[in-house]
Amino acid sequence: MQDAPQVGELTPPNRTLMGPGPSDVNPRVLRAMSTPLVGHLDPSFIEIMNEVQDLLRYTFRTDNKWTIPVSGTGSAAMEAAIGNVVEPGDTMLVPTNGYFGGRMAEMARRAGGEVVEVDAPWGEPLSPSAVADAFDEHQPDVFGFVHAETSTGVRQPNVSELTGIAHEHDALVVADSVTSIGGVELRVDEWGIDVAYAGPQKCLSCPPGASPLTLNDDAMDKVLSREEPARSWYLDLSLLEGYWGDERAYHHTAPITNVYALREALRLVAEEGIASRWKRHERMAGALKAGVKAMGMEMNAPDEYWLPSLNAVRVPAGVDDGTVISRLLDEYDLEIAGGLGDLSGEIFRIGCMGHSARPKNVTYLVNALGSVLADEGADIDAAAGAEATAEKL
Amino acid sequence: MQDAPQVGELTPPNRTLMGPGPSDVNPRVLRAMSTPLVGHLDPSFIEIMNEVQDLLRYTFRTDNKWTIPVSGTGSAAMEAAIGNVVEPGDTMLVPTNGYFGGRMAEMARRAGGEVVEVDAPWGEPLSPSAVADAFDEHQPDVFGFVHAETSTGVRQPNVSELTGIAHEHDALVVADSVTSIGGVELRVDEWGIDVAYAGPQKCLSCPPGASPLTLNDDAMDKVLSREEPARSWYLDLSLLEGYWGDERAYHHTAPITNVYALREALRLVAEEGIASRWKRHERMAGALKAGVKAMGMEMNAPDEYWLPSLNAVRVPAGVDDGTVISRLLDEYDLEIAGGLGDLSGEIFRIGCMGHSARPKNVTYLVNALGSVLADEGADIDAAAGAEATAEKL
């Protein structure tokens, strides 16, 4: 058996986070995390829970009673959504146009559901006609789509049209809003979304660990009338209802500090105003986009479904994406990411999220990226990029 | 749709946490949580992951390679253990002597397992003979027991004897060590425990959100040779192996800040030395126990299976437990808890865990409890209690 390991003080490097998340965290949120704890059943914590639920409703643009932070990272909120709404024997329709549709399928199968697919290439949104065709063919009980695809930088337009098709077929709609919440226009109620889950570490700029989830009454009715319980006890919403609902009964120990952090991150959203925040993301990411285009690079997504929070930029010819990413990290303490799946090696994924969506970060990113690409021999005009970004900021 | 909620600065009360967890957090751990984030795939974070795994092995007293923090609170680690080790059609033997055996049963059923029980009253440990009988009768594939029962204040003795019985029957042993890790002697390898899960917010005094789990090769072999995947994608250890194992491939976004916190909390364990830490808990809780006994109260558990980290104290005659608990919270900012299940209304549950297991907290607890009980008309001698505690500290 080993002796006590010699582990030194925590001194991680001071990164600038412009990848697919986490984003830079506002110092106010970091400070909130150093607050001493109260118990998870303390009356003062119940009050904090109420405040977080109110702030989440505001941010999701919903009046849903069942709006809570799930005790885990974004994938836990995703599994809470799918694992509760999909019952054994149900059919779930999922998209094939990115990494996270595949994860939806995996979770739906483990929940005991059948999976059917609506196709679109990686880097394209779903078309309403393809969704309508899939509904006619498969008659699914649940339809999942990704509002903001972190793997491709695509924003799904026409959400109301998609939900309308689903509701004509009496299906519930589950929206992945991990990379849109708090940064890109998202209107859960107005757009007819029944269930939405999200991550805190993207446009909310909150450390991961407590993840937003909202369900309307239709969805919650299905959850509460299941014939057999959800397959996860930890994520069973009929049990979590006891803790986050009127009863406030013990289910599991909530991640108290993460709830503190989420509260502060959401207060920042409320102070800025949700619509102003969406506009800021569009402006900051717009300056970033102008810069990379002026350098001579291409965005992977056309403007009509460009996702401001996640900019997929085509890797210039003759350049190795991994080398560029490593050099940015090593020489500039700057994180961006490469492509996944079908887009591996073809795109850079550059986040512009929350506290990272500000002039200082965008300016730094465009300048650093331009320098490294030029140094790697890419046929780009770094100076033109920097100038175009500066003009837009 | 509501306007932006008006939510003020985070100002929770300044509690002294002497309940069943969370315990008071050391300021060094709180400070670690205000550290800016790096990405969950950053090379510097990989190094931090290695350090946390080493520190967890030290604390669990194991050489198990598969030793990780699960991305959720203690119940997530519990479900990761049971949901991966129990396959559909397996039989799991669980205890009936406390609240958490019932939770084991619930999770085993949802994993597709059959549940059989080994009986002991609430407030008693399991006897090896009852376990042997249950094995002979049911031939279970998996045996779960609770090393430190938070609901009853009972420490399970004879662990090696229990695991020996299980291994003679080729069963795997899963130990709930939520309330023992880092505070009460626990030797995973020496005692023949195959799988152990824990919580960070008890004797490790770390905010909840990343929870210790360890599996030996026998257990991991079973997990990796399952015929059908675990029912939770989020907690599937065969997938988490990709992230925490040699590959370090993306599975889900780790709760980075919680990992920072756990690292600092475990550094404190390593600095103190695990055996010294066990002794400190015994000494501090011993002073607490001497105080409540000198006042004239009774412990629910006899000394031979007393659990220092969770002291179950019989509620004196004529006193309402809820009133005492509320007054301690309101008048003393001091958290303790009442009984659960079969012991509801009969015991106070007083934690003595991690950073809360120190003279200042124990002295405050004994004095405050004595004052409130006397004021409520209990037949106790508060002064004698305070004196007995002071002598032992």
TrEMBL record, chains A, B:
A Pfam family hit: Aminotran_5
Required cofactor(s): pyridoxal 5'-phosphate
Keyword Transferase applies: yes
GO biological process entries: glycine biosynthetic process, by transamination of glyoxylate
GO molecular function, one term: alanine-glyoxylate transaminase activity
InterPro entries: Aminotrans_V_dom, PyrdxlP-dep_Trfase, PyrdxlP-dep_Trfase_major, PyrdxlP-dep_Trfase_small, SP_NH2Trfase/AEP_transaminase
Positions of region (Disordered): 1-24
Domain Aminotransferase class V: 38-337
Keywords per UniProt: Aminotransferase, Pyridoxal phosphate, Transferase
Family matches, as Gene3D superfamilies: Aspartate Aminotransferase, domain 1, Type I PLP-dependent aspartate aminotransferase-like (Major domain)
Family: Belongs to the class-V pyridoxal-phosphate-dependent aminotransferase family.
Listed name of the protein: Alanine-glyoxylate aminotransferase apoenzyme
Species per Swiss-Prot/TrEMBL record: Haloarchaeobius iranensis
Organismal lineage: Archaea, Methanobacteriati, Methanobacteriota, Stenosarchaea group, Halobacteria
